[in-house]
Amino acid sequence: MTDPFDQHLSRDNTSSVKFDARHGVFGREDVIPVWIADMDFAAPEAVTRALSERAAHPAYGYTLFPDSLYQSIIDWFRERHGWDIQRDWILMAPGVVPSLHAACMAYAAPGEGVIVQPPVYPPFFSSVRLSGRFVIENPLVCDAAGHYRMDLAHLEACAAHPDAKLLMLCSPHNPVGRIWSEQELEAVLDIARRHDLVIISDEIHCDLTFADKPRHRMLATLARPSDALVTAIAPSKSFNIPGLGLSALVIPDKLRRDAIKEVFDSLHLPQCNPFSTAGFEAGYRSGAPWLDDLMVYVQKNRDFVVETVNARLPGIQTQAPEGTYLMWLDCRNLGLDDAALKRFFVEDAHVGMNPGISFGEQGSGFMRLNIGCPRAVLAEVLTRIESALLASRGINHQ
Ligand SMILES: Cc1ncc(COP(=O)(O)O)c(C=O)c1O
């Protein structure tokens, strides 16, 4: 029997950013889109069923966040992550990125600083800058084998900056795929405590972990009740429903919760829609078996890419991420600057990945590959890159 995740699902003409914005982003239609972080798999059947059932009722009026939605969050995180969340800690939000913006506005004044750990998901920078705060960089350290870790001594120095107010943690980390160890997370909490920093921990990728790698630990399960911690969660990556646009913040401290709520209320956010709540709840209630199967499939994709890149693509190296369906390709040995690197992948290989440089200058020379697609697509991506590499050296690939 073929694996359901092997099936090709056409996403063309669905107004998908990944597929239908190709021309605008890459300047050509013939690139294989393996960039933005959603997957080319059908969502769990429980989700499509819940959405169809909701659509079948023809009243689409203003909608509440039902109690059952909150309960689905509480149950999921207790069962899956050993984290006991109280109902009144939860603040529904229109997305994790809007939450990052709101956190900047709530916890740092204009002109104050927010610590980020590049290379990192670009909205970590833009949310700080667009809200008139400034970025304090605590770059991750990459060893010769391509393994990333936090520079905790440098983080301590950043935290000691008199204007540092907020730390944005990406856990698991996009794009480097780290699952932070308990020791690293304890150290982060300790630094934040001693320097009076609020932490917003973006754990949107918390469910995307592999059986052969460390388990993800929710930062909140290591925190003390008095810690200034805001956790951003969503089922959007876990069940491939990011277009539904809904997330949640878990904030035990009432004053800090009210501060974010005030930002959302001032913009009349979050508006709730009947489909996002239905899809969100169905994922958390019934999506677990699908997610488990998904991660078995993605793990095989991951291993296939590691093996193929390291064996067949000279000048490019990669490592198995510990979590997420994103891989970080080190292309520095190709000897191309970032503009030439992007041109090589788009114009010569016809592959559309995210340039590493968009994750901060520490991403220079890297590309981010999304492996949330059928393996046959990845095989074609890697063959195209191999052919382009051979052609660049004047060798024809048959
Ligand atoms: C770390 C991280 N945070 C947030 C998001 C997006 O969250 P949302 O769609 O809820 O704004 C992504 C999407 O790729 C992400 O990787």
What is the element string, with H for helices and E for strands? HHEHHEHEHEEEHEHEEEHHHEHEEEH
Q: Give me the CATH architecture of the largest domain, please.
A: 3-Layer(aba) Sandwich
Number of helical regions:
13
Structural domains: how many: 2
- CATH H level, superfamily name of the largest domain: Type I PLP-dependent aspartate aminotransferase-like (Major domain)
Share of helical residues: 25-40%
Biggest sheet: strand arrangement: 2-10-9-8-7-3-4
Task: Please tell me how large the radius of gyration is.
Answer: 21 Å
Q: What is the average of the pLDDT values?
A: 96
The strand count comes to: 14
Could you say what the CATH topology of the largest domain is called? Aspartate Aminotransferase, domain 2
Write down the CATH class of the largest domain: Alpha Beta
Q: Per the principal axes of the C-alpha atoms, what is the gross shape?
A: globular
Distance between the termini: 31 Å
* Biggest pleated sheet: 7 strands, mixed
Q: Structural class given helices, strands, pairing?
A: alpha/beta
Ligand list: pyridoxal-5'-phosphate
Low-pLDDT residue spans: none
Percentage beta strand: 5-15%
Structure description:
It is built from 13 helices and 14 strands. With 398 residues, it is of the alpha/beta class. It folds into two domains: 146 residues, Aspartate Aminotransferase, domain 1 (Alpha-Beta Complex), CATH 3.90.1150; 240 residues, Type I PLP-dependent aspartate aminotransferase-like (Major domain) (Aspartate Aminotransferase, domain 2). A seven-stranded mixed sheet has the order 2-10-9-8-7-3-4, with helices on both faces. β7, α8 and β8 form a beta-alpha-beta unit.
